[in-house]
Fold this sequence. Notes:
This protein is mostly helical. It is built from 5 helices and 3 strands. 6% of the residues are buried.
Amino acid sequence: xxxxxxxxxxxxxxxxxxxxxxxxxxxxxxxxxxxxxxxxxxxxxxxxxxxxxxxxxxxxxxxxxxxxxxxxxxxxxxxxxxxxxxxxxxxxxxxxxxxxxxxxxxxxxxxxxxxxxxxxxxxxxxxxxxxxxxxxxxxxxxxxxxxxxxxxxxxxxxxxxxxxxxxxxxxxxxxxxxxxxxxxx
Length: 185
């Protein structure tokens, strides 16, 4: 989580310092011959030496509806994130009981799968942060993300319950010796 925070902070700093550079700059020559730079066009008594160029490194795109983007993100990622949660619970339990240590080769494919699904989770978090960060901590988007993340815990709880509770046999009625009914006497 610290790596994600560091990356997001670095990206924010780049954007903050790139914003002034993204503005148009006019290079003008004054009546005295000195060169001046301005964010406004040259005055009529000054000669324009260079027209401003657009900053081609900064691209903007239309954002669209953030809630719709989040819903699509949730739909796309939920099965894999639930699989990740269930696998993490399974591997944690096996690791705690010592099963993983006893049969490392048997557990290796599941560990590799968990690594792959962890990368999916990081990708999900980065995409979700792109949607929720501009909206702020108190936004509906951030609340929806928190609710989705809390819902993933139910995946974990279901996986843990499935591991902890073996299938119970169907209840049977005790067999009692047959007693003659009063009607048959």
